[in-house]
Amino acid sequence: MSQTPILAVKGLVKRFQVGGGLFSRPAIVHAVENVAFSVPAQGSLGLVGESGCGKSTVARSLLRLIEPDAGEVVFEGVDLLGLSKPRIRSVRQHLQIIFQDPYASLNPRRTVAQTLTEPLKVHGLQSSSEINARVAAALAEVGLPADSARRYPHEFSGGQRQRIGIARALVLAPRFIVADEPVSALDVSVQAQVLKLLDGLRARHGLSFLFVSHDLGVVRHICDRVAVMYLGRVIEEAPVPDIFDQPLHPYTQMLRAASPVPDPKARFALPRIIGEIPSAVNLPSGCAFHPRCPDAMPRCSVEAPPMLEVAPGRRVACHLHSASGPAENSRARP
Amino acid sequence: MTEAPILEIRGLSVEFRSEGAWHAAVRGVDLAIQRNQTHAIVGESGSGKSVTALAVMGLLPQQSGRIQSGSIMLEGRELIGLSEQVLDKIRGKQVAMIFQEPMTALNPTMPVGQQIAEAVRAHRCCDASSAWNEAQRMLDLVRVPSAAQRMRDYPHQFSGGMRQRVMIAIALACQPRLLLADEPTTALDVTIQAQVLSLIEDLKREYGLAVMFITHNLGVVALIADCVSVMYAGEIVETASVNELFAAPKHPYTEALLASMPRVDRDGQLEPIGGIVPSIREIGAGCTFAPRCALAIERCHSMRPPLMEVAPERTVRCWVRGVAA
């Protein structure tokens, strides 16, 4: 990767305070801990993990919809975390987000035209003929009929609403799109339509994507690299399809094995999956995955493994793959 | 399979009232589930899969839904037309149901142990302390860690996966013969989904349950089902054993559904299905899938195909593919 990335994230941290009252201390949720990744221009990075792993918090931090506590988000050479409110607003022209729920993310009282016009006005476009032209172009781009502009969100199906959400992101001609579970609420046949649409947009406009999803199948089809998160940290990052065909981190292996495949001959061995994701309030010591890890060694509960490059383009945070390697550790497998 | 099925549905049609007229949401469903068998019903939103399960439970909305015709036999007994009182005895005891969102199905103000014990007492007359012991045994059976300590916990203190286990414990408290599972793992993460699926599979074997498993996810079908029915716009379009369905789908909709699913195990082009599912108010005379079907011939648009048997235990509702091999 000699290319300068369009987006580079370093040391991103976000902690939330929960609870706490007159007599109880607030607890700290470690939502995002020291997350780093980069997305090359015209690339598409998938951020995967299960509920509560922090993937959506990362996505929202990039646009400062959530203010991170520390770190750097360098977009086209500018650190977004240091920008003033008006400056960040102008950067968002180039950096747009698509949300999961096409029902909740559209204002039901506004026509599609009003929804799409708003961002143009916010970013200073005045001429109504130009606004109309851009709205019409965005609708055509996402495959909606021109007369949809006059209609309201409730007149559309779920898949069409997601297209409206995509049109709203596209109307400003962004260079980078953060897509937060954009197809999770859709039926599989509609999901395929929207994935095709996103793929086409990427090819036509040279867009870059950060694609947040819990569905590894979706990510395999839309991304060229994948970062896997567990309890606020990125634990493995690798190109597609290597990360799915030869996952290195035991958690990635577990996630891959648990992802259903439409082939009855591939019924997985279920007993390997141990326990549930612990709370992000009381993180396990050492490697956060060690209580559930089938390959855990004594060292894993003490020392958090650093993220290391184990092969060109492949990074993993696991003592099995660290410099000293598993050979020098006594295995604790029962 | 000479044994009589636990559940046998014949020609089931269910209608809903919408804007003053009745429209059929489920039409002519035929289905038989044997003991020790998981029969998956797969389809997209609005295909009628949940309505079919609700009809079996007798839980259709009374004002706006009705069974128009058909027969639902549970262990040889016709369920349609039974009084609420009789149905109450059957629900829970012979047939139980679990839902997608366990939080809305559990009582948030009652400890889970009490909720399971309540189900035990409702159908098996026993005293409070033996019901409580039985509830604890159930919670242990569904593999809730340290079950004894968790009996007095409330639903909000459980994770999503653990709540679904509690629901399963309640459903199985009275040892039903038939379990209806309506998208029970859809709200769960994949690793938790895998655990719950293997639990359902183990309990099925242990109790010789018949399971009707409703899902939209073909990957989950491949994991858990013995037999599969694919539903589209209120009709079963194909029924086959799980191996045959995935090895050689017959109905063009089944094929299209498989081709539109992004798979984690291989690369390949996604092929979306063009068009949209017809509304139940616009069901025409022909095949419901014909407007979106690449194989459609003239006849498909004018005449509704029946379910045709193409091989033993294998039926397809298609004029083009419904020919015996």
SSE topology:
The complex is a heterodimer of chains A (334) and B (325).
Chain A: E1 5-18, E2 27-40, E3 44-48, H1 55-62, E4 70-75, E5 78-79, H2 85-91, E6 95-98, H3 112-122, H4 128-141, H5 158-170, E7 176-180, H6 188-205, E8 208-213, H7 216-222, E9 225-230, E10 233-239, H8 242-245, H9 250-258, E11 308-311, E12 314-316
Parallel strand pairs in A: 3-8, 3-9, 6-7, 7-8
Antiparallel strand pairs in A: 1-2, 1-4, 4-5, 9-10, 10-12, 11-12
Chain B: E1 7-18, E2 21-33, E3 37-42, H1 49-57, E4 65-74, E5 77-78, H2 84-90, E6 95-98, H3 102-105, H4 112-123, H5 128-141, H6 147-150, H7 160-172, E7 178-182, H8 190-207, E8 210-215, H9 218-224, E9 227-232, E10 235-241, H10 242-247, H11 252-259, H12 298-302, E11 308-311, E12 314-316
Parallel strand pairs in B: 3-8, 3-9, 6-7, 7-8
Antiparallel strand pairs in B: 1-2, 1-4, 4-5, 9-10, 10-12, 11-12
Describe this entry's structure for a reader.
- The complex is a heterodimer of chains A (334) and B (325).
- Helices cover 27% and strands 23% of the residues of chain A.
- Chain A is of the alpha/beta class and 334 residues long.
- Chain A has a single domain (5-19, 27-94, 174-328), classed as 3-Layer(aba) Sandwich (Rossmann fold).
- In chain A, 46% of the residues are buried.
- By secondary structure, chain B is an alpha/beta fold.
- Chain B folds into 2 domains: 7-94 and 176-270, Rossmann fold, CATH 3.40.50.300; 108-175, no CATH class.
- An 8-stranded mixed β-sheet of chain B has the order 6-7-8-3-9-10-12-11, with helices on both faces. A 4-stranded antiparallel β-sheet of chain B has the order 2-1-4-5.
- In chain B, β1 (7-18) and β2 (21-33) form a beta hairpin.
- The radius of gyration of chain B is 21 Å and the shape is globular.
- Chain B starts with 6 loop residues before the first strand and ends in a 9-residue tail after the last strand.
- The mean pLDDT of chain B is 92.
- The interface between A and B is large, with 43 and 42 residues.
